[in-house]
């Protein structure tokens, strides 16, 4: 019934880093997608399935292998936090949406910024990108296959290059680095010889023939060394690389794709927070492995260990992915709760808020909040993109707020009224203290301010 030769790896190679929730929490979507790819390659008990074309007969949602995750989730005792209790039996399928891939993110960005008539063109261009982010097909071929003018494909390509990671949809590494250089120069960052070296001495650069480069350019070795340093610091040869989180790439402009979406429903006057996933791919425990694990006693010693090890590992991985998603969602909802004014009325209404406060509210550790919000971005109800870290602003000092309240008063406010207003804004101080601060700020009492 079970061919051991079909199984890719017999050795039990568990990579703790991948199983670690702390690490998964830190990764932005695209880097998470890469971690998932790696785990899929290494663990035969984990599988990815695509949505089928036949929608669910009950809700019209996507189905996976005949299962509608939405209806299944509603009819069972599905609980997103189940994994915390170490009891996954209530959710035997362990379905979880896969993180968005670079292609899916690019497509979502393009769809949002292009008229519907151009969506097929966007799909064809993104579909033509290889794993490294280079454009594999000729524009003319794409235009012919779609029966449209090449200019239209060209226009969508320009948009793709603007929206995607720097250098995306170029033809090769040289073109990629030139595109990145052009973008940097637009921001006032550059080097006098970088362009000439990439254009005319790309192979010499790769082969470290610095003396030849210096001679050809008529400059000294130091200038070439500086240019080389600039190039390695700021440019990279594969467009897709820049989309991923990389500690060494501090100087690189990373492609930002939203990890979360905050939406506003006007009819209900309510916000909705969604962690953005792949629209069509689900991860789950491989049913064959699940079945084998259930009947593990019938297997030989070696097979049994293999099956149990990989199934356990897949379960932990899926549970951690689910935990990451629910943690992000809870944090997003806590943020929305405190930043209503900002979300409705703009940046001037950003409320002071610290990670520690959110941590206390959600009974999480402050470092968990830091990890979950680091390097993540969200779309706002108005469609713009904001790093989640920008929601956290330190409380201003109470004297500044007091000064502002008085500066904006229509009629002079008494110290008691000021104390009440400060307390509403998160500064619970007594009337006497208001009087003291007011004196320090050399602001006269209310009866002298009229
Ligand atoms: Zn359904």
List the helices and strands and how they pair.
Blueprint: H1 16-19, H2 21-26, H3 29-42, E1 46-50, E2 63-64, E3 67-68, H4 69-75, E4 96-97, H5 102-113, H6 119-127, H7 139-146, H8 150-163, H9 173-186, H10 194-200, H11 202-206, H12 210-217, H13 221-234, E5 260-265, E6 270-275, E7 281-285, H14 287-294, H15 301-338, H16 340-345, H17 355-362, H18 366-373, E8 377-379, E9 385-387, H19 398-407, H20 415-424, H21 431-440
Parallel strand pairs: 5-8
Antiparallel strand pairs: 1-7, 2-3, 4-7, 5-6, 8-9
The structure holds zinc ion.
Zinc ion binds next to helix 4.
Mean pLDDT equals: 85
| Overall 3D form | globular
**Low-confidence residue ranges:** 1-14, 77-90, 247-251
Question: Whole-Å distance between the termini?
Answer: 91 Å
Largest sheet: 4 strands, mixed
Category from helices, strands and their pairing: alpha+beta
Strand content: 5-15%
Radius of gyration: 28 Å
Work out the number of β strands: 9
| Tally of structural domains | 4
Structure annotation, total helices? 21
Helix residue percentage: 40-55%
Strand order of the largest sheet: 6-5-8-9
What is the H-and-E element order? Answer: HHHEEEHEHHHHHHHHHEEEHHHHHEEHHH
The small molecules bound here are:
zinc ion
């Amino acid at each position: 019934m079970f061919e051991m030769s079909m199984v890719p790896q017999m050795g039990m190679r568990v990579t703790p880093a991948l199983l670690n929730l702390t690490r998964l929490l830190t990764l932005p979507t695209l880097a998470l997608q890469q971690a998932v790819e790696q785990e899929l390659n290494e663990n035969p008990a984990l599988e990815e399935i695509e949505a089928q074309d036949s929608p669910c007969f009950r809700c019209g949602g996507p189905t996976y292998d005949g299962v509608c995750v939405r209806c299944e989730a509603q009819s069972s005792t599905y609980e997103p936090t189940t994994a915390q209790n170490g009891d996954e039996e209530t959710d035997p399928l362990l379905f979880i949406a896969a993180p968005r891939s670079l292609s899916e993110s690019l497509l979502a960005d393009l769809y949002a910024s292009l008229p519907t008539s151009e969506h097929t063109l966007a799909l064809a261009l993104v579909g033509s990108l290889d794993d490294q982010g280079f454009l594999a097909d000729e524009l003319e071929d794409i235009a012919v296959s779609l029966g449209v003018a090449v200019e239209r494909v060209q226009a969508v390509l320009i948009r793709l290059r603007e929206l995607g990671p720097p250098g995306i949809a170029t033809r090769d590494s040289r073109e990629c680095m030139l595109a990145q250089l052009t973008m940097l120069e637009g921001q006032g960052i550059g080097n006098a010889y970088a362009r000439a070296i990439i254009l005319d001495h790309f192979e010499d650069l790769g082969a470290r023939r610095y003396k030849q480069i210096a001679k050809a350019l008529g400059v000294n070795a130091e200038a070439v060394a500086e240019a080389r340093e600039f190039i390695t610091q700021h440019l990279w040869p594969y467009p897709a690389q820049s989309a991923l989180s990389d500690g060494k790439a501090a100087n690189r402009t990373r492609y930002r794709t939203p990890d979360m979406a905050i939406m506003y429903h006007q009819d209900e006057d309510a916000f909705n927070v969604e962690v953005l996933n792949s629209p069509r791919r689900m991860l789950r425990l491989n049913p064959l492995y699940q079945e084998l694990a259930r009947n593990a006693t019938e297997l030989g010693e070696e097979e049994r260990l293999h099956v149990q090890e990989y199934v356990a590992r897949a379960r932990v991985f899926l549970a951690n992915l689910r935990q990451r998603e629910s943690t992000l969602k809870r944090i997003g909802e806590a943020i929305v709760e405190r930043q209503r004014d900002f979300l409705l009325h703009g940046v001037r209404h950003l409320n002071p808020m610290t990670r520690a406060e959110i941590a206390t509210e959600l009974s999480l550790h402050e470092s968990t909040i830091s990890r979950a919000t680091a390097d993540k971005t969200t779309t706002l109800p108005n469609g713009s993109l904001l790093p989640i870290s920008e929601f956290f602003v330190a409380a201003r000092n109470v004297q500044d707020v007091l000064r502002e309240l008085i500066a904006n008063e229509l009629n002079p406010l008494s110290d008691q009224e000021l104390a009440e207003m400060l307390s509403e804004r998160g500064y619970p101080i007594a009337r006497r203290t208001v009087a003291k601060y007011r004196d320090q700020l050399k602001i006269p009492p209310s009866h002298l301010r009229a």
